[in-house]
Automatic annotation (TrEMBL):
GO terms for cellular component: cytosol. This is Glyoxylate reductase/hydroxypyruvate reductase. It comes from Microctonus hyperodae (Parasitoid wasp). Belongs to the D-isomer specific 2-hydroxyacid dehydrogenase family. InterPro entries: D-isomer_2-hydroxyacid_DH, D-isomer_2_OHA_DH_cat_dom, D-isomer_DH_NAD-bd, NAD(P)-bd_dom_sf. It comes from the Eukaryota. Signal peptide: none annotated. The lineage of its organism: Eukaryota, Metazoa, Ecdysozoa, Arthropoda, Hexapoda.
Length: 319
C-alpha cells in the first residue's frame, strides 16, 4: 500500500514531529529559510495532509489548489487565526491544533512579564545603562503581587496555569472573565465577573484569550480608562486583542502603571515604534511556547493529529 503524503511547511520543524510522521508517511518539507506562499501553493497538490510549522494561511484559495486528496490540516500552534476553520471543515477536511502542551511554558512567560513590569526591570536597566541610577528609598518602587487582585481575561488552559503559579505569590483574590463561569475557576477559588468589573478591581490584568471576532480590539481606550492607575497589563494571548495605539496612550498618559507583552499588533513590533521609548513597557518577541520541550511536544501532537486523522481516529486536539 502506498504511504500517505504529508507536506511540512518548515525545514526546522522539531524532529520529534518529523520522525513520527516519517514512521508512517512520505514527508515533503518545504526548503529554504523563508518559503513563500508560491512555494506552498506549488508543493501542496497531491498531499493527504499539511503540517503547518508556521502560520501559513489555509483558506479557500489554498484548499482549491490542494484538491480532493487533502484530508487533514494540522497546525503546530494553539492559536488558529491563520486557518479558515469553517471552510476547511465544510470541505470535510479534519483540522487540529496543539493547545494544552504549551500552557505551562506560556504561563511562565506571563509571570516573567508580570514581574518585570511591576518591578520596573526594564526601567532599572535603562537607568543603569545611562549611569543615572541613584539608590534612594523611593527609587523604582513597584507594586506587590502579594495581597493583590489578579484578573484573568480568558480562563482557558493557559489562564489556569497562570493562576496555579500565582497562588504561591500570595495573591489576595483571583477574578476572571469569559463566556461563562467554570468549575475549574471555582476549584481555584477564582470569581467569575464581567470584563468591566475585572478592569475596575484588578491590580494585574492578564490577557490569555485567543483572537476571535469577539476579542478583536477588546482592549481599547475605554477599557484602559476603566483600569486602575496602578494596574499592570500583561498580554500573552494574541496581539490584535489590544489596540496598540490605545495601549500606547494608556502608558504615555499613565492611565496604567506598566505593561508586559509577549504578543503585539503588528508582530514583530517595527523598529523605532514609539512603544520602545517608554520605560514602563516590557516586550518579548512572542516567546510563549519557545522552550525545547514545549516545541518538541507541540510537534509530536501536530504529527499525531495527522496520523490519527489518516487512520480514521479522533484527533488529539481537533478544532
Ligand atoms: C501558539 O501556539 O498559538 C503560540 O502562540 C505560538 O504561535
Amino acid at each position: 500500500m502506498s504511504k500517505w503524503k504529508v507536506l511540512v511547511t518548515r525545514h526546522d520543524t522539531p524532529l520529534t514531529g518529523l520522525k513520527l510522521l516519517e514512521s508512517r508517511c512520505d514527508v515533503t518539507i518545504l526548503s529554504g529559510e523563508a518559503p513563500t506562499r508560491a512555494d506552498l501553493i506549488q508543493a501542496i497538490p497531491g498531499h493527504d495532509a499539511i503540517f503547518l510549522s508556521d502560520h501559513s494561511h489555509v483558506n479557500a484559495e489554498l484548499l482549491d489548489v490542494a484538491g480532493d486528496k487533502l484530508k487533514v490540516v494540522s497546525t503546530m500552534s494553539a492559536g488558529y487565526e491563520h486557518l479558515d476553520v469553517a471552510e476547511i471543515k465544510r470541505r470535510g477536511i479534519k483540522v487540529g491544533h496543539t493547545p494544552v502542551v504549551l500552557s505551562a511554558a506560556v504561563a511562565e512567560v506571563a509571570i516573567l512579564l508580570l514581574l518585570n513590569a511591576t518591578r520596573r526591570a526594564h526601567e532599572g536597566r535603562l537607568l543603569l545603562e545611562d549611569g543615572k541610577f541613584q539608590p534612594k528609598p523611593t527609587t523604582l518602587l513597584g507594586n506587590d503581587i502579594r495581597g493583590s487582585t489578579v484578573g484573568i481575561v480568558g480562563l482557558g488552559s493557559i489562564g489556569v496555569e497562570i493562576v496555579k503559579r500565582l497562588i504561591s505569590f500570595q495573591v489576595e483574590r483571583f477574578v476572571y472573565t469569559g463566556h461563562a463561569r467554570k468549575k475549574i475557576g471555582d476549584d481555584l477559588g477564582a470569581k467569575f465577573v464581567t470584563l468591566d468589573e475585572l478592569l475596575k478591581m484588578s491590580d494585574f490584568v492578564v490577557v490569555a484569550t485567543p483572537l476571535t471576532n469577539e476579542t478583536h480590539g477588546l482592549f481599547d481606550d475605554a477599557a484602559f480608562d476603566k483600569m486602575k492607575k496602578t494596574a499592570v497589563f500583561v498580554n500573552i494571548g494574541r496581539g490584535p486583542v489590544v489596540k496598540t495605539d490605545a495601549l500606547l496612550r494608556a502608558l504615555k498618559e499613565k492611565k496604567i502603571f506598566a505593561a508586559g507583552l509577549d504578543v503585539v499588533d503588528p508582530e514583530p513590533l517595527p523598529k523605532g515604534h514609539e512603544l520602545f521609548t517608554l520605560p514602563n513597557f516590557e516586550i518579548l518577541p512572542h516567546l510563549g511556547s519557545s522552550t525545547v520541550k514545549t516545541r518538541n511536544d507541540m510537534a509530536t501532537v501536530a504529527a499525531q493529529n495527522i496520523i490519527n486523522a489518516l487512520d480514521g481516529k479522533p484527533l488529539v486536539y481537533p478544532l
